Amino acid sequence: MATRREFLTGAASAGIVFCGCDMLPRAHAQQRGRQSLPVMVNGKRVKTIDVHSHCVFREAIDLMGEEGRGVLSQTRGAENLFVAVEQRLKSMDAMAIDMEVLSINPFWYGKDRETAGAIVKLQNEKLAELCAAHRERFAAFASLALQYPDLAVAQLEHAVKRLGLRGAAIGASVLGEDFSEPRFHPVWAKAEELGAVLFIHPRGIPELAQRLKGNGYLANTVAFPLDTTIALSHLIFEGTLDRFPGLKVIAAHGGGYLPSYAARSDHACLVSPKNCDLEIKLKKKPTEYLNQLYFDALVFTPEALRHLVAQVGASQVMLGSDHPFPWEERPVDHVLDTEMLSDEEKAAILGGNAARLFGMTG
Question: How many Å apart are CA 141 and CA 150, to the nearest integer?
Answer without folding.
Answer: 19
